[in-house]
Amino acid sequence: MKLDPIETTPSISMGGPDITEREIQEVVQVLKGPSLSRGERLKSFEREFATFVGSAHAVGVSSGTSGLHLAVLADGIGANDLVLTTPFTFIASSNVLLYEDAVPIFVDIERETGNINPDLVAEAAEDLDRRFHSAGQHWLPPTLRGQLPKAQLKAILPVHVFGQPADMDPIMKVARTHSLSVIEDACEAVGSEYRERKAGTIGDFGIFGFYPNKQMTTAEGGIIVTLDAEADELMRSLRNQGREPNCDWLAHTRLGYNYRLNEMSAALGLIQLRRLEEMLAKRARVASWYSERLVDLDRLQTPRIAQTTTEMSWFVYIVRVDSSLSRNRVLEELRERRISCRPYFPPVHLSPFYVERFGYEPGSFPVTEELGRTCLALPFSGIMTESQVDYVCDQLRKTLD
Ligand SMILES: *Cc1c(COP(=O)(O)O)cnc(C)c1O
Predict the structure, then answer these.
(1) Hey, which of 89, 90, 215 would you mutate to test ligand 1's pocket, going by the most ligand atoms within 8 Å of its Cβ?
(2) To test the ligand 1 pocket, which listed residue (61, 93, 380) has its Cβ within 8 A of the most ligand atoms?
(3) pLDDT tens across 233-288, in order?
(4) Which residue minimizes the CA distance to atom 6 of ligand 1?
(5) Which residues contact 355 (CB under 8 A, 6 or more apart)?
(6) What spacing in Å lies between the alpha carbon of 225 and ligand 1's midpoint?
């Protein structure tokens, strides 16, 4: 977020991380010390993060995506296994299933929150549990209908979209009824709470992401939380090339990966975690500045917070542009006014390689596609000033006139 020194019009970027001298000093300390990876910072970060969310185990990894991948592996999801998930997401939550040749079974979302619709989750689980009666087939991707006679429904992978938890109680009920595991993609929801429980701690696995645009950052990085001690040990081995803990240097017992989180990132994460409450409060304040200024615009809808969201962790600030207007026109006009903004999310099922592989067509998931057409992310971060919010809102009003 900078004022351009040459031009007179300010340019407003999407937002950036909130880094203080404390983070800088900690990272510098790592560089002056003996270990840049697999050291004490990572252990402390994992311990403090587990305590913060109230989980038994936390496994630091190189990204949110690698965390999701390890959870899929630790959960035993493999080729042709079916997993109920959402097409309204950042693509990683669905791609990690493809890494293992599992099949994402997309379920449409709730209009209010953009999160997976628990009634549809229940319906799909019911239909697919009576394994491959014709009732279940229409949930499968078009190209796979009738092709997977032995496939089994294994898990539900909800995503807490934009920082707001999915409706977990009914999802957990479906999971219990049909013996499914639950992997929560909490990459956008660090610190948010569903009925006073931390997002990411309700299912079997919760994954958080720390890319620089997230509420807290380790530059690149992520963490997985679980109560399952065996899964914890397996994921520690998998992130470290398949080595057992405390084993000899080159003793690899299984196919593993290099998904480790380095010490500089862990040091950065530790300070960010200790500052998280402050950073989330600043983000909430920026969100409220936006909402105060935009709530009266009748062709724009400001974010809605579900009753079940007892703590909101603001990842992005999303407005919905009325369908009588073109979101893309608003987006372009804002960009012409040197304000960054983004369409959020392009539906996963309509991205080219999903279309090619699975045969999806527009109309497959109408609510997802509606939100994909109307949602607009405005510049947003905890370090935005009130006058920057003012400026963005003034410009946005002009584009609506
Ligand atoms: C950010 C994010 C991830 C993880 O992204 P990485 O860049 O791999 O850290 C996963 N799922 C969702 C929904 C996200 O927003």
Answers:
(1) 90
(2) 93
(3) 999 999 999 998 877 777 889 999 999 999 999 999 999 999 999 999 999 999 99
(4) 64
(5) 349, 361
(6) 15
Rounded average pLDDT over 2-26: 81
pLDDT digits (tens, 9 = 90+) for 104-122: 999 999 999 999 999 999 9
Nearest CA owner, ligand 1 atom 9: 64
